[in-house]
Every structure is written in C-alpha cells, then in structure tokens.
Amino acid sequence: MKKYFAELVGTFILVLFGCGTAVVAGDKVGIIGIAFAFGFALIAAAYGIGPISGCHINPAVSLGVWSAGRMKIKDMLGYWVGQFIGGILGAWVLSVLISGVGGGYSIGASGLGQNGWGAGYQGEYNMLSAIVFEFVATLIFVIVILGSTQKSAPAGFAGLAIGITLVAIHIFGIHVTGVSVNPARSLGPALFVGGKALAQVWLFLLVPSIAGLAAGLLFRTRALEAD
User: Fold this and answer.
1) pLDDT over 90 for what percent of the chain?
2) What pLDDT does residue 83 have?
3) How far apart are the C-alpha atoms of 212 and 53, rounded to whole Å?
4) How far apart are CA 164 and CA 3, in angstroms?
5) Fold classification of 2-220 (topology level)
6) Got the DSSP string for 81-146?
7) Is this model's pTM higher than 0.90 or not?
8) CA dihedral in degrees (207, 213, 219, 224; nearest 10)?
9) Are 126 and 117 in contact (CB under 8 A)?
10) Closest CA to 180 of 157, 159, 211
C-alpha cells in the first residue's frame, strides 16, 4: 500500500504544479514556463517518492513497465488506482484555489489545464494530429523512462533525464493537445471542467496507454534493452 500511496502523492504533485502553473500563471510564464513546471514537478516527485515506488505517476508508464516484464499486473493495477486518485485530488485542490481569485473564476469557461484538440483549443489542431502527437510523444517518453532505469544505466540520473524529456515534450506539444502523455493527468482536470474536455478525454486515456504498451514491448523483446 505504501507504493500505491506514493504514486497518489506523486501524481498529485504533477497535476497541481503543472496544471496549476498553466491556470494561475500561464499568461505570465508562457509555454516555456509551463513546460518547466511539469518537468520540475516530475523531477521533484522522482527524487521524493522514487525510492518507494519508482515514481511512475502515470498509468501509461506503469503499463509500459508491466509490458516490459518489470512489474506484476497486481501492482500495476494498484499503481493505476493511486495515480488516478492523485490526479483527481490535484485537480480538485487547484479548482478550490483558483476559485478564490478576485472577480471569480469560471472553470467551465476558462478551464483547468485540461487537454483537448480542435476548434477553440490552443492551435486548433485536428484529431489526427492529436493522436499522432500523443502516441509519438508518449512512446518517446516511456522509452526514455525504461532506458534510463534499466540495470546498465548510470545510477541516480534517471529522474533528471525523465524530467528534461517531459519539458521538451511540453515545449513541442502544448499548442497541439496541451500535452497529456499521462491518462491520470488528463482525467483529473476533465472531470471538473466537463463538457468538451470530458467528451475528448477518451483520446488521452487510450492513445498514451497504447504507446506505453508499445514502448514496453520494445524492451521486453530486447530491441532496446541493453545487453
């Protein structure tokens, strides 16, 4: 249970500080600032809870670790429960915090850092672009995670490499989908925003999961596993 609770805490940190920066300070810090908020939050969580759970804080990552043969399915499901609860709690705390802004705040109108695509969202990229970006970005992200945590990788640097990769992914993709690469990060805000965000969340639950599974298989088949 300690591992599952650690995943809850780590996912809470990622959603609160990543989405929180987008909502509270996005107009001040821009894409670069939001990207670094997500990356730094992940790095902080990695060194904070990594010794307990490995700091997946992402159901797609846990699926990749399982498909790579490094995790039992029972633990993967426990990680998922912790991750989704953490993502929902992070979005809830952010919704309470932002409601206190002067003049009020409409979550339905202004959002909560949710992911999406199409008319009225960021660069208005279509669904195909959203699918391609989320698949490729998640595949690369999970490859970096599995590669930097394999036995032959240098010890102590995985958290930094993974966080930097998440920063790069956000700089590239915020205008496409807002960047999910993480079903738990997407579900939390979508539940509170509702409407179009909730109607589109299926893509951010499904596509990153498929990509995580594919990345894991590349290591299970030793296509990318170090000898």
Assistant:
1) 94
2) 98
3) 18
4) 24
5) Glycerol uptake facilitator protein (1.20.1080)
6) HHHHHHHHHHHHHHHHHHTTSTT---HHHH-SS----STTSTT---HHHHHHHHHHHHHHHHHHHH
7) yes
8) -10
9) yes
10) 211
Q: What is the pLDDT of the chain when averaged over all its residues? A: 96
Q: What is the pLDDT of residues 146-162, one digit of tens each?
A: 999 998 888 888 999 99
Distance from chain centroid for Cα 196: 20
Element (H, E) at 177: helix 158-177
Nearest to 55 by CA among 68, 69, 41, 73: 41
Residue identified by tokens 């970005």 is 137
Q: Which two tokens stand for residue 116?
A: 């999406």
The dihedral sign for the CA sequence 185, 190, 192, 193: positive
Token duo for residue 223? 């296509």
**Burial level of 59, CB count in 10 A (0-12/13-18/19+)?**
buried
In whole angstroms, what is the distance from residue 181 CA to residue 137 CA? 7
Q: Cα torsion at 97, 100, 105, 107 (round to 10°)?
A: 30
CB 62 within 8 A of CB 216: no
DSSP label at 71? S
Q: Are 219 and 150 contacting, i.e. CB atoms less than 8 angstroms apart?
A: yes
